[in-house]
Amino acid sequence: MAEINVNPTRMELKKLKNRLATARRGHKLLKDKRDELMRQFIELVKKNKELREAVEAKLANVHRSFTAAAAVSSPRMLEEALMLPKKEAALVVGTRSIMNVKVPVFDIDIPDGGSSDGQNYGFAFTSGELDEAVLSLSELLPELLKLAETEKTVQLLADEIEKTRRRVNALEYTMIPALEEAIKRISMKLAENERGNTTRLMKVKDMMLQRAIEMRRGAESEA
């Protein structure tokens, strides 16, 4: 624990007490923030787990459909069917705040307002398995974006929780004990100085009283 070196004066003592009060308030606020971040973090982790499992299950179905389509269609037909995209889409990235932590919000924007079914070929020479795979993959896109958004949010919250935890520990185990120790040391020093001043004043008073007595005796002797 680092020692705070200041002059042992009443003004410095007052400043240290104000710093201690501020540090304690900050410590409480940071602990509350850390606890709320942890609560939301745990909820998001559960949500992310459920979303990932659902997305992975749907991706497995899409993969099976593509595999079946490849089994009943020629590679050239698949390449020609999937060569050109039907629609163009843009990723729209926004932000929202969770306990002053900016986290991303992902959305998809299709400029012409059309559907995003992704089928850019005619149905005459393609298999139903390919149609199902492409449609399922297109429908899965919003969920993939939501999964990416949730995972990035979880990562950012985890980083903020770690930063907040370090600040809480720094206040709790370093700054607040150092301030308390400095206040205790200065208070003891001021009390010691006060006792010394009181002792000196009593000695001066005794000396003055003794001198007055001696002067009075001298005056009585002369009389």
Give a verbal description of the structure.
With 223 residues, the protein is mainly alpha-helical. It has a single domain, classed as Orthogonal Bundle (Helix Hairpins), CATH 1.10.287. A two-stranded antiparallel sheet has the order 1-2. The chain starts with 9 loop residues before the first helix and ends with a helix.
List keywords for this structure.
2 strands, mainly alpha, 74% helix, 223 residues, Helix Hairpins, two-stranded antiparallel sheet
Question: What is the topological layout?
Answer:
Blueprint lengths: L9 H63 L2 H7 L8 E9 L2 E9 L18 H95 L1
Antiparallel strand pairs: 1-2
Helix pairs in contact: 1-3
Task: Please provide a brief summary of the model.
The protein has 223 residues and is mainly alpha-helical. It is built from three helices and two strands. A hairpin with a 2-residue loop joins strand 1 and strand 2.
The helix fraction, in percent, is over 70%
> What's the Cα radius of gyration?
39 Å
What is the overall number of helices? 3
Would you tell me the structural class of the helices and strands? mainly alpha
Provide the number of structural domains.
1
How many β strands by DSSP? Answer: 2
What is the CATH topology descriptor? Helix Hairpins
| Biggest β-sheet strands, sense, barrel | 2 strands, antiparallel
Name of the level-1 CATH class: Mainly Alpha
In the predicted model, the low-confidence regions spanning at least 5 consecutive residues are none
